[in-house]
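Contributing new records

If you add data, match the layout below exactly. Sequence lines come first and carry their own label; structure lines follow with theirs. Keep one chain per record. Anything else will be rejected by the validation script.
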Amino acid sequence: IVAMAQDNGSARDAAVRQRLAQAVIEGRVIRMTNLRSSAARKAGHQPGPEGSITKLFQAEYNQRLQNLAIDILGAAGMAWSPGDEHTAVAVRGFLRSRANTIEGGTSEIMRNILGERVLGLPKEPSVDKDIPWKDVKRSS
């Protein structure tokens, strides 16, 4: 992404540079969290909430990163020449990043899990929790 910004001149924009720096920082935070979690497991510690926290942060980080790539590409991110594989890869990454907040548990579900299990917040009210799915009223 940095190379794209340098190639098309958008790296001269202070806001783009700030977003690039933020992306690097967030990427390193994710990497360090994964390393710390891995070291804890190797030392025999039980997994904690790091997996859910990292899943949530990684999914949303990837969307921000891919949005940045598309913003840097500008109009080229909407229409590109058939031989421009770098742009095609960036656009595919952007489109694919949307699934990251859905697969493996949506971001909303991850927030609920963290709120209930880590922060001790009460569960959301559920009047139909004891009713089989087939019997749950869905619409009028």
